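Now for a specimen:

…
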Amino acid sequence: MHLELRWLIGFNLVLSVWLGMLANTWKGRSTYGWMVIGLFTSVIGVLLLILMPKLALRMPIAAAPKSLQRKA
């Protein structure tokens, strides 16, 4: 696993715990419920980041316009 993905997963874990604690103190909501929501969305985001280059290769609309492409 790449170092960037480890850092991103760790950051998302800390962010989801912080979101759970914030929701608990601010509105009295369930800390663990918000942590699960944060972790679930983080996992989906990381998976999309991993799969995005593969998806971009299949989608011709994702190619850069000719005006932005480098001239050889």
Remarks:
- The two ends are 34 Å apart (CA to CA).
- Helices lie at 3-27, 31-58.
- The chain has a mean pLDDT of 68.
